[in-house]
Design brief:
Elements: H1 2-10, H2 15-22, E1 24-27, E2 31-35, E3 45-49, H3 61-82, E4 86-91, E5 107-112, H4 119-123, H5 133-142
Helix pairs in contact: 1-2
Length: about 150
């Protein structure tokens, strides 16, 4: 995702257009925030360290700190943008825990609303979204506190 975005910019695409195409909300020094392409709810983002690490304990301190700072910014952005009743934040480590790539952790942040659970994800393996991903990207990029320079 990051490599494709960087390649696109070397081919003349603007950084913003490349980030939009890759659904990257923000890039930091050690982590980036992107939309989940198969979200459980509108606004589902992932905070991903550039460095591959199978566990939080093995993640270098600067990356772990930036991950938490990004999670705090995303909490504020998601609350401001979508007004959810709550948020889920979690890391799946290892295949048995549901990690798609066991050697690489990332933090999921997703808004939740009372009564938002439905049968589609469970029985039909289908996601129902009321908003197109590019609109979610645009809204979160414009949310207060999502700039790397703000909040911290």
């Amino acid at each position: 995702m990051i490599a494709a975005m960087r390649w696109a910019t070397t081919q003349g695409m603007s950084l913003e257009d490349a980030e939009r195409a890759a659904l990257i909300v923000e890039q930091g020094e050690t982590c980036f925030v992107c939309l989940n392409r198969y979200p459980y709810s509108t606004g589902h983002v992932m905070i991903v360290p550039y460095l591959h690490s199978p566990s939080l304990a093995e993640l270098p301190e600067p990356a772990a700190l930036e991950m938490m700072r990004s999670a705090r910014r995303m909490e504020l952005a998601l609350r401001e943008t979508y007004r959810p009743d709550g948020l889920n934040m979690g890391i799946n480590m290892g295949q048995a825990a549901g990690a798609g790539i066991a050697e690489h952790l990332h933090l999921h942040c997703l808004p939740r609303w009372s009564g938002d659970t439905n049968f589609m994800t469970t029985t039909a393996e289908t996601r129902v979204l009321p908003e197109e991903l590019t609109m979610t990207w645009t809204r979160l990029r414009a949310a207060p506190g999502t700039s790397i320079s703000t909040l911290f």
